[in-house]
Amino acid sequence: MTMLLRTLTFCAALGAVDLAVAAELSLAANTTGKNVHFMREQLDLFEKQTGHKVNLVTMPPSSSEQFSQYRLWLAAENKDVDVYQTDVIWAPQLADQFVDLTEAAKDVVGDYFPSIIQSQTVNGRLVALPLFTDAPALYYRKDLLEKYSKTAPKTWDELAATAKEIQEKERAAGNADIWGFVFQANAYEGLTCNALEWIKSSGGGQIVEPDGTISVNNEKAAAAIDRVKEWIGTIAPEGVLAYQEEESRGVWQTGNAVFMRNWPYAYALGNGDDSAVKGKFDVTPLPTASEGEKPSSTLGGWNLAVSKYSDEQEAAIELVKFLSSKEVQKQRALQLSQLPTLAALYDDAEIAAAQPFMPSWKPIFQSAVPRPSAVAKVKYNEVSSKFWSAVHNTLSGDGTAAENLELLEVELTELKGDSW
Questions:
Q1: pTM for the model
Q2: Model confidence at 157, in pLDDT bands (50, 70, 90)?
Q3: Which of 19, 43, 20, 27 is nearest to 310 (CA)?
């Protein structure tokens, strides 16, 4: 056999091996902001590096709808999805359906914030790797606050007063569409996040305490929700009762809100070339009920988990480690303004230059308030659903906060039974 023939034979054999190990994967990911476009770019890079193919299964932006679909697929032992983009609160509920990544991630796990790794560890099993972390803040129109000699509000009452004054004066000046404050009050997981912030920052606890005590039925919690009810139709549009993150951002980004409560992803989009508020806004910690209370941002964040029903678990783990790597997280921070889960990236000069708000956001998420998913475990989704329903009923005028929280306490007590 000639040297050329031997070389061709070897190359053909090598190609056959490559084809044999190449996997076709499917990743389920949400559609908030520009996540899909960014994810597809990274998947194309992964495909070039590994020879694997990855299909992107796009999910609705509502985390509640996304969770419901995931639970159906996993209960059916669906093999069509290999990797799931998961909310930080889902680990206790879906842990048994995911591969333990402890061994596969042992070389990188020490690079992540310990609290985030802990949130994805259930019964000693690391069920997901952190993709990005999240904690909301108050976005404000610095140009309008300067125009009317106002400062960023420290308390909720100060926010309401400033929002009302600027809204009225701007409307009198001809800006008929402007509102004082937009947030997320639809009946879904996002309302749980918002309402937890209102209550916790008012000294009203955190729905269910870490020791399992149901604490939500108290005067401070009721007062916090009643305060927000007064905003509906005054400084916030009636339509806010149907707003999720993207609806709020839509109003904000067209220049029709003074304040907005939202997650970090809205920062980069707000400074995009198509944004009416580009260069006109800043962010600050969420307000409190009174001076002395600690600001309370709900801990958010998204992770990547490998389905135990996947036939391509090795390649799927490879994909998870790639997407949660330092290089990809840096690009995610630069392009999407999403907070890294790797401590080293908060000292990255390029990120600090492109996203000057990001280093100052670190203490916001490090002191963020977790939802009671760790204590409620598999019952968390029902806890949250009952909570957001009680809050939404109150905001919609169906019963007072005190009445609805009293009913909620009864429902949660029944749900809890002897223990969570």
A1: 0.89
A2: very high
A3: 27
Three-class SS state of 273: coil
Question: Whose CA is closest to 29, among 83, 93, 77?
Answer: 83
Rounded Cα–Cα distance for residues 297 and 369 (Å): 6
Return the bridge partners of 259, or none: 140, 181
Q: What are 160-216's pLDDT values in tens digits?
A: 999 999 999 999 999 999 999 999 999 999 999 999 999 999 999 999 999 999 999
The CA dihedral of 379, 380, 382, 385, to the nearest 10 degrees, is 180
- What end-to-end distance do the CA atoms of the chain give, in Å? 72
Strand 125-126, strand 121-122: pairing: antiparallel
Query: Which stretch of DSSP H or E encloses residue 269?
Result: helix 265-270
Burial class from Cβ neighbours inside 10 Å (0-12, 13-18, 19+) for residue 218 reads middle
Neighbours of 7 (CB within 10 A): 11
Q: What is the DSSP letter of 19?
A: H
Q: Could you give the CA distance from residue 294 to residue 297 in angstroms, rounded to a whole number? A: 10
Vertex 239, ends 58 and 393: CA angle to 5°?
A: 95
Q: If we measure between CA atoms, which residue out of 206, 187, 209, 246 comes closest to residue 390?
A: 187
Question: Of 388, 390, 410, 409, nearest to 398 (Cα)?
Answer: 390
Both tokens assigned to 34: 């520009």
pLDDT tens for each residue of 16-34 = 434 447 999 999 998 888 8
- Burial zone of 346 (CB within 10 Å; 0-12 exposed, 13-18 middle, 19+ buried): middle
> Distance (Å, rounded) from C-alpha 84 to C-alpha 69?
11
Could you give the angle at the alpha carbon of 277 between the alpha carbons of 177 and 227, nearest 5°? 55
The helix/strand/coil state of 355 is coil
* Cα gap 193→63, rounded to integer Å: 12
